[in-house]
# Entry
Amino acid sequence: MSDKMSDKKVNRRNFFKIVGAAGAAAGVGAVIPRGTRTAKAQKSGNGRAKYDVSPGDLDDYYGFWSGGHSGEIRLIGVPSMREIKRIPVFNKDVGSGWGITDESKALLRGRDAGDTHHVHGSYKNGTYDGKWLFVNDKLNNRMARIRIDYLEVDAILDIPNIQGAHGLFPQRYPETKWVVLNSEFQTPVPNDASNKAAFNNPQEYYGMHTIVDAEKMSIVCQVMVDENLDLAACDYQGKYSMTTSYNIEKGVTISEMLASDYDYMLVFHWGKIRDALRQGKYRMVNGVKVVDGRKGHSDIALRIPVPKNPHGVNISPDGRYAVCCGKVSPTVTVVDLEKIDSAHDGKIKPEECIVAQPYIGLGPLHTTYDGRGNAITSVFIDSTNVKWNIAKAIEAEKQGAKAKEKNPHIVDVLDIHYQVGHIMATMAETKEADGKWLVSLNKISKDRFLNCGPLKPENDQLIDITGEKLKLVHDSPAYIEPHDCIMVRRDIIEPKVQDRYDMFENPLAVTDNSVVRNGNHVTIKMTATAPVFGLQEVRVKQGDEVTLIVTNHDEISDLTNGVAISSYNINFVLGPFQTKSVTFTADKPGVFWVYCTNFCHALHLEMRMRFIVEV
Amino acid sequence: MKDKGKMKRNVIGLIILLVIGSPFVPAAYAKWGFFAHEYKYKLEDVLDANKFTEKKGYWEGYRDNKLVGYVFLSKDWTKDLLGYSGQHLETLIGMDTKGIITRAKLIAHSEPIVLIGLKEENYHKFMEQYSGKNIMQDFSVGKNISLDAVTGATVTAVVQNAIILRSARKVASLTGLIEAHKGPNRKLNKRSVSLTWEELLTSTAIKNLRITSKELGIEGEDIYLDLYFGMVTAPSIGKNVLGEKFYKETIGGPEAGEISIAVFSRGKGSFKGSGFARGGIFDRFSIEQEERVTVFSETDYRILTDIKAKGAPVVQEGGLFKIRQKDFNPADPFRFNLILPYRIGGKKEFRSFKTEYKVPEMFLEQ
# Structure
């Protein structure tokens, strides 16, 4: 029989004919034992989504949480809310050796404190591509990149000319070539002795919209503006980046920052930024191209007036609207992004891009989406999550004040515990927003957990958003202090994640054990294969500078070795095929045991060797 | 396949060596490490012959100028099979002209069997069982190959068993003792139809193995292990079991050459066990196609947490297991071997099960 004919045969109807002929039609074979007919777990559904994850089962989403002033990132399984991993970024982590090893020190460059707020993934065509994560450091003005395959930092970029590196967002379309980063604190530019005249003149303090090349992790340019720049967002067409500003006043005290009745949402026009760079319309400051985006100096930034001191700006998954939260105003401002081009070209006024300004509650901060036309906004002062319908808000705005009074857009209001900051739904920052889970990242946990002293955790609350109403299902405590998170479908991340390192990606990878002296510098190259180190003893002289390079030669996944040097304040761990190094001065004479800190083998305790510092 | 110099060196024989990592030793030794054992050997150790003629990958053994059998080194045939240590278990094997193993001798290994209270003698005792076994009959650990001597070292035993069986069968097919793969060269149909779980079961696209507590002698009326498996490279099976997206990502299609089975289970028992966690080898199941045995390692494995087909049960364990052997034909029958450990009181017992499998005719090209 030809292939063509057999292909024709394989369709559902013919299939049953064949099965029937074989005498194995359903019911005849009776091979299905009772009890196996159990329906599949109800994982979807109308306010009754399954949130308990049984032992051995896996979560549906990879949650990436920022760690606030802990300086790290955390990987949380959603919906179980189990913390699966901590990724040290701008901090020192004595467990993994981040901040101890030569490799991590080269990235940290002496600064192991940080403040991470916004972690976002790289995109392709409006959804995550599972390649990188990016995160800001508000404390030391840096941006870090995390590679998804190992889920660890591979680059940290220091960004000059800014302070308060806050809002961060990657380009969403066609793919992430650029990442934008906002400076929330205005400062002199440059902010050094050469510009000391500006120190006492806040009118000469500026905000910066920094554009970073995602692949190279280098700065493309900075757009300098008068305003401070808070949260950031990118559109779904690769045309604009957006931000809110709460200090257009250039105030340096709270009352000054609150002076104006309105502030701005700024929209940066990427085509015009590229033009300025092409035409050489920039000046170099600390090695960075600084483009002038000030009002009256260029038309790169469009300024849409919004009620004073706004906070978050989030784009709806269909790419159509930017929702700007009022913070001091109980409203949000809905901006129609289809009108931005006309406003940029001066055909309409910036405020004409606004299509609705619905009432939400006291202190709206951030907005997320369910992918079904609804937005959910976190409300700080009221301590609620408010679900509202975007189309209904726009419709009411058209009909006028009377229609608006009835708040027809509000679908549900949920009390949370307590005082929410950010809010995020699963896949909500992509065109694939799926409306399954919502996390309310609350700032105060008070009586929600066992009392643990005056310093209490945050409270991340898990909310089922599959139904019409918001349904709180789980509380989980979080240590200092996640600001924001994203939740990415498992099938996007899982195939990218590796079990072992590519050994020779690291040029230092050790294959042969050796000790080589060069003057007073001693290089020790050693393998680790549980339960033995490749060397049983090493001798150096007091005062020698020692570089210890270790490669884990175990191939089995999850077989991690630790390398600790007693009394020398050194510890780091090595995953399968990973190489790390440390450099230190052997200043204390004596016998020091090098031992494995990460349980590796039944003879883990015996996995040690002598490091002898001779007088 | 091999280099002659190396073989000569082996024949000359090596002294027993227990290598303990010492300063400035080459990395290779550090890697073999603390548990490395090597034994000297001669070809006549495993076959009673007085003349050996070297062939490609084996020796012919003659007694009084009459061919009496074959001797071969496992690493020439099954080097890819690695023990708990991550190292091959080097074995010298003798086989007579009828396919009866004359003797199997361990010549090098790094298995840390001492950790579970075993001695080298236990391992050698385990090896003694192979003398007299017919390679065309099945030998499987827990059934006719006893684990008594090496209780606890199931990874080692399973891999050692596969090494002997697979090496011997390969040599046997080369020497004409058994016929190499015959039968029509069937292929999987590329088309797929949408099927429910019940339909996958009734068509035998998915096979079910149910083991009750009762039949194991454990108290209770429950099912100890309810296991399902199937050849998911076949699109009609794979797409329904794994879901279209995951199928595409992991298997692609029959033409892509990714051959995988999916295995799921529920119940108190476990087909995955924990051998793979530290040792990297799944020591409770293997598959066999004609003379070819496949043991799975963690690099062949991807976790599956649910069955996508409509009406499928909730499972506790599941995995997609890649078959890397080039001579495995997904359209041909194979056998799923399971060694199930269980406890009666405090005593550990083993029972082995075999389930025949063939992709149903309607999913093959006609």
